[in-house]
Every structure is written in structure tokens, then in C-alpha cells.
Specification:
The complex is a heterodimer.
Chain A (H helix, E strand, L loop, with lengths): L2 H29 L11 H13 L5 H26 L7 H24 L10 E4 L19 H22 L7 H29 L31 H4 L9 E2 L2 E2 L13 H6 L7 H8 L4 E3 L2
Antiparallel strand pairs in A: 1-4, 2-3
Chain B lengths: L11 H11 L6 H14 L8 E3 L3 H25 L7 H25 L19 H22 L6 H25 L21 H8 L6 E3 L5
Parallel strand pairs in B: 1-2
Helix pairs in contact in B: 1-4, 3-4, 3-5, 4-6, 5-6, 5-7
Classes of the chains: A mainly alpha, B mainly alpha.
Chain lengths: 301, 228
């Protein structure tokens, strides 16, 4: 599975995606309104079968691409926490990190099952040339050298992974518009990634003196901060891009409404801090891949 | 405690027009509203006396979110105005930040919806002891968890990609709040089994289930009859 070809595929398919989905949207809603009637463990298979009914054979290539993109991120995250927990003496807050590790591995299992059931081919760890959590493009000597020996570095990378995961899932939501099964599942994972991000930030702040809050608070506004420098509140300049992009985290105009001009609890206007923290912005698939490839991973061609 | 019907109206019509244009809904407000009401008739939605229904379609989803954000904002305004006994300064700072985010969400929906917005709701917090840390944090957890399950549960009904993106931008902040409140109650309690299922997915709730929870704290009852 080539990540670059996923992007090309999406770009090719996207223009037709909504047209193809729309006429069937009502049918999909009806077919997938099975809710709690299906045991949770059986859900991935049920999703696949129901989706096959809706589509004749299988989920559309674009939906499977979105799922494989999500799975790629989850493999990166799960392996990161597996390696961290396996590193002797690294993790102090095991009650926090082990729960996150468990969730990320469950996400890998869930998405793999869902893609299989939908007739797709899931990405696996063997599809990557390397995973380099130092950000060193395979050298294992990048800006986060010591990620599995220095706990503070580990937490900083974890925070960035979680924040980026939230932005990545958010960016894919419009590609699953109206799809009860896959949109809801993606948003449910998205919320769990946000819970993780909040918890890692809380740990860094309360136990290790980092000047972060559970939410992403940007100091600057005005021009759109595509580089991420003004949006990045982690104190690690190497991850600016994770907070930038076409819709960076310091965005203060949402849906044409200038948030700064809205009344707040104590004033007729809203502060930049509140306006930027109250909304998390998306990253596109190509923006996410540009951050990850080649610094953190490289897919086999 | 009253809701913020007395807050300064900030050029609501302008804001709404630009929001709709941004969202690609290039129709006049009246056209959009009549589409909504005809949709209502198709669904045979019968309004219940004394209950505020959020309406249908994307406007209904946005009003559903607006109702929940009104409730959350009102709650945290009260929490910060009358902090619980011996509140540590760090906790007051967190809760003040959350108050500001929720007011921001409420004002965003009010501005974006303009004349399509439901009325300002009157909360009923008589069941919450605002002097008790335990009671306040338990209520905060309930509101934040409810908000996450609400957005996730109704999102597939959204037809406009721009609205979906904004709902996504808000729900992850609610999830950040939920995790923090969980950690304040019990360290390490941020993906508790009452909120995250065995597949590692946050649970989601139907609008009717969400409103059953929310209406406990609302004097003005809210329904979402066009959403199953």
C-alpha cells in the first residue's frame, strides 16, 4: 500500500464522491441503523456486510482510502506506545500511557477488521520501510533523538501525535459526509484521540511544568499562520507544521463568523486565546502525509 | 441564573449571511427557512406545546448544538460566578477557560443561525450544589460527556461539509474538556469505560437520548423530533 497513491486516489475520486454517495445516503442510513442490536465485537464484520449490501460489492475506493489513511496513523501511534511501554524505565505514568496504548491498538484492530469486511486491503506494519520516532527519516537520529530514553521527549512526541491525530480525523470527516456507519465511527475515534491529547497535555503541565493546557491555545491571530509557528503551543518548534496548514490552529474566523467579534462572559469581544482554543482545526490528508513522510515513516513503493 | 438573551447582539444578520455563503448555501434566508418548514410537514412533526423543537435538516442540527452549548455555557458561568468551597486556583483557571470556550460556542451558533436560531433557553440547575466540588465536577463530566456523544451521534445527518467541519472542530474541544474533568475527579480517568467502548471508540448517542439527559437541567424543554 503506497501512501502517495492513496492521496492520488482521493484526489481523483473526490470530485465524484459526493455524487456517488448522495443518492444512496438514505438507503445507507436505513441499512446501518442497527445500533446496539449488534454485539460490539461483531461490529466490524457487520459493518462490512451492511456496506456490501448498500454498495453491491464493497465500500467505495475512496471510503477504503480514508480508512487506510486512518489505519496508517493508528499503526504509527500504537507502535509508538508499544515501544515506549517496552522501553525499560521510560514511562513513569503507566496508568495514563497504558490506557492510551490499549486504545490505539484497539483502533488498529477495529480499522483492520472494518477494511477487511468492506472488501479492502488493510495497511500493515510491514508496508513501511521504517518507523522513525526521532523524526530522522530512518536515521533514528532526528530532532527527537532519545524519544525512548528521555520521558519528557516521549511525552512531547506523544502530545504532538495525539493533536495531529485529532486534526487528521477531522480533515477526513467531509469525505464521509452522510455516512452513518463510517462517519460516526471516525468521529468516535476522533473524540478518543482528543481525550488522549488532553490527558498528555494535562500530565505535561501538572507534573512536568510544561506551559501547555489541555486545549491548543494560540497566541497570535491576524494573518493565517500556515507555518504553524504562531499556533504551536507545545514549546517544540520542530513540530510547527503539525499546528499549521491551510486551516491552522490559530484560526479565528469560523464559517465566516469572526469569533473575536463575539461577546464573551466578561466583555463585548472574545480573546484570541479563547477563540483559538474553542475550535480545533483540520489537517488535510496531504498535509498530514507531508508531516509524516519521510521524517517518521516511508511506505514501501 | 438566566440565559444570555440580554447579551449584545453582534451584527447577527451579517454574520449569518457570510456563514451561509461560506457554507455554499447560496440561498436567501427565507428560502432556506421555507425549505425547512416544508421538510417539517413531510415528516409529520407535531410540535408539543411548551417544548422548543430544534427543527429539521442542517438548521435543526445546528440548533440542537446551540441548545447544548447554551446549557453548557450557563452551567460554567454559574460555576465561575460561585466557585465551589476551597477551589484551588488552578481548577478555577481551568473552569474559567472552559466557560470561555462554551460561551464562544454558544455565541458562534447564535450568530451563525441568526433568525433561524431557537430561543434563549432557561436552565434549571436546582439539582446541583454549586458549593460542592464533587457535585460540580460530576455535573461537568456529565455535560461534557453528553456533548461529545451528542455531536458524534447527530453528525451523519449533516448535509453540508462546512457545517460538518465546524461540528468536528467543536466536538474535539468538548472531548478535551471531558478528559480534563475526568482527570480532576480521578487521576487517569480520561477514557473511562462509561464513555469509551471495547473497540476504543467514544460512545455516541441519538439526539432523543441526549435531550432526555439535557432536559433534566432545562426549564425550557427541547425536542429534536425530526431526528430519530
Amino acid at each position: 500500500m503506497n501512501l502517495f497513491s492513496i492521496v492520488e486516489e482521493i484526489e481523483k475520486i473526490d470530485p465524484e464522491f459526493n455524487d456517488r454517495i448522495s443518492p444512496r445516503r438514505d438507503a445507507i442510513k436505513n441499512i446501518t441503523s442497527f445500533g446496539s442490536k449488534v454485539a460490539i465485537a461483531a461490529v466490524p464484520f457487520a459493518l462490512g456486510n451492511l456496506f456490501k449490501k448498500a454498495y453491491g460489492q464493497s465500500a467505495s475506493a475512496s471510503v477504503i482510502s480514508v480508512l487506510n489513511f486512518a489505519l496508517t496513523l493508528e499503526i504509527l501511534e500504537a507502535t509508538f506506545y508499544n515501544d515506549g511501554m517496552a522501553a525499560s524505565g521510560l514511562v513513569t505514568d503507566t496508568s495514563y500511557i497504558s490506557q492510551i496504548q490499549s486504545d490505539e491498538n484497539k483502533h488498529v484492530t477495529f480499522l483492520t477488521s472494518a477494511i477487511n469486511a468492506a472488501g479492502g486491503t488493510p495497511v500493515t506494519a510491514s508496508d513501511f520501510v521504517y518507523l522513525d520516532y526521532t523524526g530522522g527519516a530512518g536515521s533514528q537520529a532526528g530532532p527527537f533523538t532519545g524519544v525512548f530514553t528521555n520521558y519528557q521527549t516521549f511525552l512531547a512526541v506523544a502530545e504532538t501525535f495525539e493533536d495531529t491525530g485529532v486534526r487528521a480525523y477531522k480533515g477526513q470527516a467531509p469525505n464521509l459526509l452522510g455516512n452513518q456507519t463510517y462517519l460516526t465511527a471516525a468521529l468516535d475515534i476522533h473524540a478518543v484521540e482528543a481525550r488522549h491529547a488532553s490527558a498528555i497535555r494535562y500530565l505535561r503541565m501538572t507534573k512536568y511544568g510544561a506551559t501547555v493546557l489541555p486545549w491548543i491555545t494560540s497566541a497570535a491571530s491576524g494573518s493565517v499562520d500556515t507555518s504553524g509557528a504562531a499556533s504551536n503551543d507545545t514549546g517544540v518548534a520542530a513540530v510547527n507544521a503539525n499546528y499549521g496548514g491551510a486551516t491552522p490552529e490559530n484560526t479565528t474566523v469560523q464559517g465566516g463568523v469572526n469569533i473575536l467579534n463575539l461577546p464573551s462572559a466578561t466583555s463585548s469581544t472574545t480573546t484570541v486565546a479563547a477563540a483559538t482554543a474553542a475550535f480545533d482545526e483540520p489537517l488535510t490528508m496531504s498535509e498530514v502525509l507531508a508531516i509524516l513522510v519521510p521524517a517518521f515513516t516511508k511506505p514501501k513503493s | 441564573m438566566k440565559t444570555e438573551t440580554d447579551l449584545t447582539n453582534v451584527n447577527v444578520n451579517m454574520a449569518r449571511r457570510s456563514f451561509l455563503r461560506y457554507a455554499g448555501a447560496g440561498v436567501a434566508g427565507i428560502g432556506l427557512l421555507s425549505a425547512v418548514s416544508s421538510c417539517h410537514k413531510d415528516h409529520n412533526v407535531v410540535p408539543t406545546a411548551g417544548v422548543t423543537d430544534v427543527g429539521s435538516g442542517d438548521i435543526g442540527v445546528l440548533n440542537f448544538a446551540y441548545a447544548l452549548e447554551q446549557l453548557e455555557a450557563a452551567f460554567y458561568l454559574q460555576v465561575v460566578a460561585t466557585p465551589y468551597t476551597s477551589i484551588p486556583s488552578i481548577e478555577l483557571a481551568y473552569l474559567t477557560d472552559i466557560r470561555d470556550h462554551e460561551v464562544c460556542h454558544r455565541e458562534f451558533f447564535k450568530a451563525a443561525l441568526g433568525t433561524s436560531a431557537i430561543q434563549g433557553l432557561t436552565p434549571d440547575f436546582s439539582k446541583i450544589d454549586f458549593t460542592s466540588r464533587t457535585a460540580v465536577l460530576a455535573a461537568a463530566k456529565a455535560f461534557e460527556d453528553l456533548g461529545v456523544t451528542a455531536y458524534d451521534g447527530i453528525a451523519y445527518n449533516i448535509q453540508n461539509a462546512a457545517y460538518l467541519s465546524i461540528a468536528g472542530s467543536i466536538v474535539s474541544v468538548e472531548a478535551r474538556h471531558a478528559a480534563l474533568i475526568g482527570n480532576l475527579i480521578t487521576q487517569g480517568n480520561f477514557v473511562s469505560s462509561d464513555q469509551v467502548d471495547t473497540n476504543g471508540l467514544n460512545i455516541s448517542n441519538k439526539p432523543s437520548a441526549v435531550l432526555a439527559g439535557a432536559n433534566v437541567y432545562l426549564k425550557t424543554k427541547v425536542s429534536a423530533n425530526s431526528f430519530s
